[in-house]
Design brief:
Distance between the termini: 38 Å
Order of helices and strands: EEHEHEHEEEH
Structural class: alpha/beta
Helix content: 25-40%
Oligomer: single chain
Low-confidence stretches: none
Mean pLDDT: 84
Number of strands: 7
Number of helices: 4
């Protein structure tokens, strides 16, 4: 049984107040907004060189399954800038392997480039052609939402999001 869950909702555009995740009224769950942060497009550096030398290489956006990020998928399909590729893998090493093998762009927070396990992959980040951002939410049971430990957790997470050095770009 989980005490809390962190939910990420990625979107295009700058929405001042991100839309709260929809929950059934009788779910017994509460949702607390933690804030928003910008996303960049991350790729393997050597893929850029390969794509530059070959006119056959076409970049694709590598995304979590549409069921996990339906709003982002819908918005990116409407823009129709690049082909979308779903990745159902759940481990970091598989995602890294995909980035190393093909010309994929992965929407991610800039901190991913420096995260343990990802740093060695020599990933590079480029700005997205459209503003990409993720809204972060904390999902709790209603009866837990007023407990001091969860209020402290919310405060710490909001602070970390706000003070993230990658936000200064």
């Amino acid at each position: 049984m989980l005490d809390a869950a962190l939910i990420s909702i990625a979107t295009l555009g700058n929405t001042a107040e991100p839309e709260s995740p929809l929950l059934p009224a009788d779910s017994g769950l509460a949702v607390a907004s933690l804030g928003c942060r910008p996303l960049v497009l991350v790729h393997a550096g050597h893929q850029r060189q390969i794509a530059h030398r070959s006119s056959q290489t076409r970049w694709q956006l590598l995304l979590p399954p549409a069921a996990l990020q339906p709003l982002l998928w819908r918005q990116l399909r409407q823009l129709d800038l690049l082909p979308l590729q779903e990745c159902t893998d759940t481990d970091c090493s598989s995602w890294l392997q995909h980035l190393q093998e093909k010309a994929y762009l992965l929407p991610a927070h800039l901190s991913l480039v420096e995260a343990p396990g990802w740093r060695q992959a020599a990933l590079q980040a480029v700005p997205a052609p459209e503003l990409l951002q993720e809204s972060l939410w904390l999902l709790l049971r209603n009866e837990d939402s007023e407990q001091e430990r969860f209020k402290v957790l919310q405060r710490l997470l909001r602070e970390r999001i706000r003070l993230d050095p990658a936000e200064q770009l």
